[in-house]
Design a protein that fits this description.
With 417 residues, the protein is an alpha/beta fold. Helix content is 34%, strand content 22%. It folds into two domains: 6-219 and 333-415, Zn peptidases (Aminopeptidase, 3-Layer(aba) Sandwich); 220-331, Alpha-Beta Plaits, CATH 3.30.70.
Length: 417
């Protein structure tokens, strides 16, 4: 086994930072952020850049039926289940340069460091870029890791369409056509362990002056699609008593839930982030309003209790309209294995860092890998806790610190029997 710290010492802070800047040009926005949604031209362009770096590093590239990208450094005993690391490279429409991308580029930097040090680990190490983690174009998100882990069947994912009616199946065909030489593996395979590096997307590490977070788990999440149906009517001639105003009913439902789904400690997270109205005309009473609900809490019982109020509150405030509430995601809170938390913590300490234990308030692909293998996460700070925002920022030194921890964690995991 390699001496501790040798691979970490090979992490190139400038290269890691420059690659973030280079990848951000695929889907760059005028305000300095990224619009690189799943299976878009921009994401294909970013994957082409990744493949160029991977090829130069001598890695083997492959994909699978859901479009996950794998970059493989073969181990000395390639028949053993590999160690995986990575995250995603798709973004929100007004996303930042580091959300998800950091996990993929940190993994690539670790493999570059292994090669520079002349290390071939016992187990194969694979970097993965999961398909559609964000769910901004195709909802719900985490499609790639869910399909890989068997959480959702591929047949249930392929027909999902975006707002323009374009289906996942059609965009996957376009993705595969863009990389005709790439091997396509079957969906899913045994994994020895999974480690995901990520910006925190919260303010705790920065506030505490820490460079590395040991992620203890991920809070629970429930989502719904709510469709309210009324009736079109003339805005100038139809009295209120005769209207079936779908938008007014949706607004009443949302207001009621905002009033009811609260707690004294401000721990619960309730969000309506998307609403679509038809016919969406200034002088027509809306006939349809469809909106999303995102509900999160670290305690499973509390999450269930708040979740149980959603359908009732929607029905109670539908007025003359009808409403259909469709559950989409029901993910319980999880705790990562103590051994995975411990290896991250002790590795950071041995590297002279002062790690901080904290839960993840945001969801990540590690949630799904946790089902099939020992999984863990490493956080690094982001400025002001700002994420899903073009102003998302972090420091080169923090990215490098997290990558050094990731490097030594992966070396240890990949050398295990």
């Amino acid at each position: 086994m390699t001496s501790f710290g040798r691979v970490a010492a090979r992490i190139d802070e400038a290269r890691l930072w420059d690659r973030h800047e280079a990848l951000a040009r695929a889907g760059a926005t005028a305000r300095g952020g990224v619009d690189r949604q799943a299976l878009s031209d921009e994401e294909i362009a970013a994957k082409r850049i990744l493949l160029g770096w991977a090829g130069a590093a001598g890695l083997e590239a492959a994909t699978d039926p859901i479009g996950n990208f794998f970059l493989r450094l073969p181990g000395r005993e390639p028949a053993l289940p590999p160690v995986l690391t990575g995250s995603h490279i798709d973004s929100q429409p007004t996303g930042g340069k580091y959300d998800g991308v950091y996990g993929v580029l940190a993994g690539l930097e670790v493999v570059e460091a292994m090669r520079a040090e002349g290390i071939r680990p016992r187990r194969t190490v694979e970097i993965v870029a999961w398909t559609n983690e964000e769910g901004s174009r195709f909802a719900p998100g985490m499609m790639g890791s869910e399909a890989f882990a068997g959480v959702r069947p591929l047949d249930a994912i392929l027909p999902v369409a975006d707002a323009a009616g374009v289906r996942v199946e059609a965009e996957l065909a376009r993705l595969f056509a863009a990389f005709p030489e790439m091997a396509v593996r079957p969906l899913g395979f045994p994994v020895a362990a999974y480690v995901e590096a990520h910006i925190e997307q919260g303010p705790e590490l920065e506030a505490a002056g820490r460079q590395v977070g040991v992620v203890t788990g991920i809070q629970g999440k429930k989502t719904w699609k709510v469709a309210v149906h009324g009736e079109e009517a003339h805005a100038g001639t139809t009295p209120r008593r005769r209207r079936k105003d779908a938008l007014a009913a949706a607004a009443a439902m949302i207001a009621a839930m905002h009033g009811a789904i609260v707690d004294a400690d401000d721990v619960v997270r309730f969000t309506v982030g998307r609403i679509a109205v038809e016919p969406n005309a200034p002088s027509v009473v809306p006939a349809t309003a469809v909106f999303s609900i995102d509900l999160r809490h670290p305690d499973g019982a509390t999450l269930d209790r708040f979740g149980a109020t959603v359908e009732r509150l929607c029905a109670d405030h539908a007025g003359p309209c009808t409403v259909a509430v469709t559950p989409l995601v029901d993910a319980a809170p999880l705790i990562f294995p103590a051994a995975m938390q411990e290896i991250v913590r002790t590795t950071a300490e041995r590297l002279g860092l002062s790690p901080m234990a904290l839960p993840s308030a945001a969801g990540h692909d590690a949630r799904n890998l946790h089902i099939i293998c020992p999984s863990g996460m490493i956080f690094v700070p982001c400025a002001g806790g700002i994420s899903h925002n073009e102003a998302e920022a972090t420091l080169p030194a923090d990215l490098a610190a997290g990558a050094r921890v990731l490097a030594e964690v992966l070396v240890q995991l990949a050398e295990r029997a």
